[in-house]
Every structure is written in structure tokens, then in C-alpha cells.
Write a structure and sequence with these properties.
Distance between the termini: 62 Å
Radius of gyration: 28 Å
Strand content: 25-35%
Structural class: alpha+beta
């Protein structure tokens, strides 16, 4: 390239940059169909030519402000009541921008990990009917694309405000949708949900790194992020490229079209053997093949694998018969008529675990092929190969690093006026429950500080999950629930208890509507000041009586109740600290008597203290009791700190 041409390109670039700097612009959050918060000061901001006067007008509100030396401007419109549709007008002496179909109503931020991100259409309970009943155009969602940054002062990730309709709501956050729908129908105003979620992320990533410098367990990582943000940003960009490569390989059809790995004619005699269900995880892009011999072609046939972890394509005799994503539950696969034939039939699977590259297939007793009245067991030897397609690149979980999601997906939203936050997260911090109370409290307080408003924070306690145990055991899951309960000490917070809505085999329970209903009950009480019972029973006091405990509860409504034949979920221990399952019965409207023949002198008690609990104590509103422990020396935090 000549020096003259190079100089011209630089000059043109400088002119272009200068022109862009003088243009009137607003963050992507300001767009057609947006919802703005009623009855609060409205902050409208953007860029313009330095020194320009920017006029902002919405409904009955109008103001002007001057752009500073860097072209930045921030205008404040006085509070206005709910209403619409309006037009938001922003102009300078040389430019005019307007946004149509703007409503004043309630704006909520929905944030957290996959259970809040979970889409309505991802096999949630009764989702098809919900889609049919979703023509509520005053509900709008702004779903932020997943992005992370080690650097502050990032722009709002570009998206659009999507109006609720049967064509759109399947892609909305399920909990966000059910919450917004109740809010809209009860208050009769427009509702906007800003969806800032990322599955499988930890709370420290959603917290400013600066705020974590003195939080136990996170000081070192936070200091490192603060000391060299540019270095971390470079790592993030490199990791992003690897992640894109990974998903390109996952989506590739090379193994099917070019390598013919699903075809019966392909020779797999040199492949390795593996026994399914596999106890040792496989890695990368795993191909599995098994030949099944049938005496005759069946009229009806189906396949079942129990569990495929987590992305799978299933082929029979070269034809794809099913595809499973990480959001799907493994179901029985009905095979097309005539696909199976007398003689040899090939079943082939292509399986990938995009989360941690640990592939597993099947559950004991749950791998079979049904052919008419016969059921063939598919457990045992399969042929497998995991190097036919390229290895997956080593992608790091940099979206767990302190502050990276706060920088990219929360801070850019400020100071957009909002009513509050609904939050569902904690699963990814389940291995360090002793740190979570301080971490989560810091997250809430830092959001409020940066947003410069009280910001009501309504959150979901972890659901029951994993294999139930017949006897009391230690539980990280229970300790994290306890940390979530302790966070209620902060003002303007509330917690939805959902121990009764979990799934033994899936960390993503599909009953999202009752979760949202409990969150909205909390909103009615904590945010809107309504006199409603929004919490399950909460332990008020405890005393020893007749070799047992007499417990008194608050938040009982008209009285405690039991779902089932007997009261479950209690365990007590004596001076040896060994817990035993306990018997329990109701006493009056607000008390429970708990005892065990194996504990003569009770010292401590636990309720709902398990990964998966069958605890069944409720109040008159049908809300489950808050899990607790009492009477024991709680040294978990101190031990973890050491």
C-alpha cells in the first residue's frame, strides 16, 4: 500500500470518527415498543456534538440539557403516570430521533442463571396453552445477548423490545413471562422485562469486582481483574473465538454427510468398545453405534435412552429420528413405520456435552428398543469413536470471573428507571455455600449503589434436586438455601421458597408458573404494599418439651397445614451431633411438636435440610415452610474461610 493511500485512509477514518462523535445517539435500550417506568424520574441519556442542546419530550414531560465536552448528555424527565402509546422525541438543532409505541408502566430486571433464562417454549409445564393465551401487547421483553467484559463503561448490548404475542412469547424467559403477566393483569399497566441472564454463571460474575475486594473467597480473583483488566479482556476475546469454533463444530454435519458415521455400510470394526450406560465420561464429539438383529420388521417401534448428556442426535439405519438439546428432557422416541427391518438394524448416536465436555449416555434399566410387544435391552457393548471429527477447543469459564457480567449486562442498563429485580441463581455457587451469604448481599447492595435507587430485590431459593437420601446427611444445597434466607436481613428483599417444585433428575424444574406466582406474591407485599401472605411459615421460636421440640411459626395465615398423611422433613440430634429422622405433628394453628425415639435429649433440629427434601409443612396460602436449622454450632463459614 502506498504512503499516500495509507494517509488518505487514516484521514477518512478520522473524519468518519469525528462525524460519528457529533451524531445524536442513544443506547440500544431506547427503541420502539419500549416500556419506561411510571411514577419515577426518567433518565434519558446518550451522545451528541459537544455543547449541543438536547431536547427530550415524552407525553406531558419535556426538558433540555447540554452535551458536555465529550458529547455526553443525561436528561431527566419528571415522573408521569402509566399510559401510552406515546412517542419519545429527542432532538438537537440538526437532528431528530423519535421512538414509537412507547408506554409508561412497570419495568423489571430479570436476572440470574439458567432457571431464570429458561424459555417458556423449552418444555415448561403447559407452555403450548400459555402461548395461545399470550396476546397481551402491553407486555414487552428486552432480552440482552450474552456478553462479558473485564472493562467497565460498556454500551448496552443491542437487542429489540419484543411485543408479547403467540408468535413471540415462546422465546421469553418463562418466569419473567408469568411474572409480567400477573403484574400486567393485576395493575392494568404496561410491563417491560429486561432479561439479563446467562445459564451456568456464578454470582461473583454479576457483582462489581471492586465490591468483591473484601469479600471472603473472592478477594484474589477480584484484585487480579482490577489490576489488569486489559489483559483479561484480551483473554476474553481469545476465549470467545474458541467458543465460536466449538459451536461451529457442534453444529457441523460433517460426521453425517461426509464421514457417513450414521450409515450401516460404514465400517466400525476398528472402533473402541464402551459399555452403556457409561460410568466413566467420554469426551469431545462422541459417536456411538450398535447393531440390533430383529427376526421381523415391527409394525410399531420406539427407542429410549434414559438420559443423554447433553446434546444428541439419534439415527436409525442412517435416518435421523430425534435431536436433543441441553434444554430438553430425554423422551421416548417413536420410530417411523417401516424404518426397522428384519435382520440387522443400526442405531447410531452423536453426543456432545457443551458444558464440560463430559459425555454420558443412558441410565441403568432405561436403554431399550421396543419392537411391537418385545422390548430389547440396549445396555452393554457399543462401538464408539471420539476422534472422527475434530476435538473441541478448550473453552474456559471466563463468564465466572468477578465483575465480567456486571460490566457487560448490568452496569450498561443504568440509570434506566426500573421497579425492581427478580433473581434466580445459586446453583453455580453450590460448591461454596459458606461464602454465598456475603457474596449475594454484596451483589444486591452494589447494584443498589450503582443504580442509585433502593431497587427491591425478589429472589428464588434453590429447588429440591438430586437423589433423595433416606437418612439425614450434610448438604451444600441446604447450606446455600440457608445463605439465601440470611440475605432477607437486607431491606426491600423477599424470597420465594420452591423446595416442593424441584425435580430429582433435573436442575431445571419445568414448573415455572408457580415460581413466578410466588415471586409476584412477594412483589405485591414488599413492592406494592399490599396486605397479602407472601412467605411460607418461618420459624419464630423453639423450646424443648417432653424429649422433643415445640416449634412456633410466623407467617401461618389462618393456620399450618400438612400435604400428605404425615409431617415430613424434620431431623433432630442430641449432644453427639448425629441427626435422626424425626416424627412431627401439628399443635394448634402455629405450632409443631417434633421428636425421635432415638434422641432422648434433643439439642439441635433441622427442617428441609437436604439436597432433595420431602418437607411438606405449609401455611393457609399453600406456601411451603422456609428450611432452617437451629441449636447447633454453625462453624461452616469459619471452616471454609480457613
Amino acid at each position: 500500500m502506498s504512503k499516500l493511500l495509507h494517509s488518505c485512509l487514516i484521514f477518512m477514518s478520522l473524519i468518519s470518527t469525528s462525524l460519528m462523535a457529533s451524531e445524536l445517539t442513544l443506547p440500544a435500550l431506547f427503541a420502539d415498543h419500549m416500556v419506561l417506568q411510571r411514577d419515577q424520574d426518567l433518565k434519558i441519556w446518550g451522545q451528541a456534538k459537544a455543547g449541543d442542546t438536547v431536547e427530550v419530550e415524552l407525553a406531558q414531560g419535556k426538558t433540555s440539557v447540554q452535551a458536555d465536552a465529550n458529547g455526553k448528555w443525561l436528561a431527566t424527565l419528571k415522573p408521569q403516570p402509566a399510559g401510552g402509546p406515546y412517542q419519545l422525541k429527542v432532538k438537537t438543532k440538526s437532528q431528530n430521533i423519535s421512538f414509537d409505541d412507547v408506554w409508561l408502566g412497570e419495568v423489571w430486571v430479570a436476572s440470574g442463571q439458567s432457571n431464570m433464562e429458561w424459555k417458556l417454549g423449552a418444555q415448561t409445564e403447559n407452555w403450548q396453552q400459555e402461548v395461545q393465551d399470550s396476546k397481551l401487547p402491553q407486555i414487552r421483553f428486552y432480552t440482552l445477548p450474552k456478553t462479558l467484559s473485564a472493562l467497565p463503561n460498556q454500551p448496552v448490548p443491542a437487542a429489540s423490545w419484543i411485543v408479547a404475542s403467540p408468535e413471540t412469547v415462546a422465546d421469553f424467559s418463562a418466569i419473567g413471562w408469568f411474572f409480567a403477566k400477573q403484574n400486567h393483569l393485576q395493575k392494568g399497566v404496561a410491563v417491560g422485562v429486561i432479561d439479563a441472564t446467562w445459564g451456568g454463571t456464578a454470582a461473583e460474575a454479576w457483582t462489581p469486582a471492586q465490591a468483591l475486594l473484601n469479600v471472603p473467597g473472592y478477594e484474589k480473583d477480584a484484585a487480579d481483574m482490577q489490576a489488569q483488566p486489559e489483559v483479561w479482556q484480551q483473554r476474553i476475546e481469545e476465549n470467545k473465538q474458541k467458543d465460536q469454533q466449538k459451536w461451529q463444530l457442534i453444529a457441523s454435519n460433517t460426521g453425517v454427510e461426509q464421514l457417513k458415521l450414521a450409515e450401516p455400510a460404514t465400517d466400525d470394526s476398528q472402533w473402541q468398545n464402551v459399555s452403556l450406560p457409561n460410568t466413566k465420561p467420554l469426551s469431545d464429539i462422541v459417536w456411538l453405534r450398535k447393531t440390533v438383529k430383529l427376526e421381523k420388521a415391527p409394525a410399531q417401534a420406539s427407542l429410549f435412552f434414559g438420559d443423554i448428556n447433553q446434546i444428541g442426535r439419534i439415527f436409525v439405519n442412517g435416518q435421523q429420528v430425534a435431536e436433543e438439546s441441553w434444554a430438553d428432557s430425554t423422551t421416548e422416541i417413536k420410530l417411523p413405520a417401516g424404518l426397522l427391518k428384519a435382520g440387522d438394524n443400526l442405531i447410531a448416536l452423536r453426543v456432545i456435552n457443551s458444558w464440560d465436555n463430559k459425555v454420558s449416555v443412558g441410565r441403568a434399566g432405561q436403554l431399550w428398543l421396543k419392537a411391537d410387544a418385545s422390548q430389547l435391552n440396549l445396555e452393554g457393548d457399543w462401538r464408539y469413536k471420539n476422534d472422527a471429527e475434530p476435538q473441541l477447543p478448550d473453552v474456559k469459564f471466563l463468564n465466572w470471573k468477578p465483575g465480567v457480567l456486571f460490566n457487560a449486562m448490568i452496569k450498561p442498563l443504568m440509570p434506566y428507571a426500573v421497579k425492581g429485580v427478580i433473581w434466580y441463581q445459586g446453583e453455580s455457587n453450590g460448591d461454596k455455600p459458606a461464602y454465598y451469604h456475603k457474596l449475594f448481599s454484596t451483589l444486591i447492595q452494589s447494584w443498589r449503589q450503582h443504580w442509585q435507587q433502593p431497587l427491591p430485590f425478589l429472589y428464588v431459593q434453590l429447588a429440591s434436586y438430586m437423589k433423595p437420601q433416606p437418612y439425614p446427611m450434610e448438604s451444600n444445597w441446604a447450606e446455600l438455601r440457608e445463605a439465601q434466607t440470611k440475605t432477607l436481613a437486607l431491606p426491600q428483599t423477599a424470597m420465594a421458597v420452591i423446595t416442593d417444585l424441584g425435580d430429582i433428575e433435573d436442575v431445571h424444574p419445568r414448573r415455572k408458573k408457580p415460581v413466578a406466582e410466588r415471586l409476584y406474591l412477594a412483589a405485591r407485599a414488599v413492592v406494592y404494599g399490599e396486605d397479602v401472605l407472601y412467605s411460607g411459615p418461618v420459624l419464630k421460636s423453639i423450646r424443648v418439651r417432653d424429649s422433643g421440640f415445640r416449634l412456633t411459626f410466623d407467617q401461618v395465615g389462618t393456620g399450618l397445614s400438612v400435604k400428605g398423611d404425615q409431617l415430613l422433613g424434620f431431623a433432630i440430634a442430641g449432644h453427639d451431633g448425629k441427626y435422626h429422622n424425626a416424627q412431627a405433628k401439628l399443635l394448634g394453628t402455629d405450632q409443631v411438636l417434633v421428636w425421635s425415639e432415638q434422641v432422648k435429649i434433643p439439642v439441635s433440629i433441622r427442617f428441609g435440610w437436604a439436597d432433595y427434601t420431602y418437607a411438606n409443612l405449609y401455611n393457609s396460602a399453600g406456601l411451603p415452610a422456609v428450611p432452617f436449622r437451629a441449636g447447633e454450632q454453625q462453624t461452616a463459614t469459619a471452616g471454609a474461610a480457613k
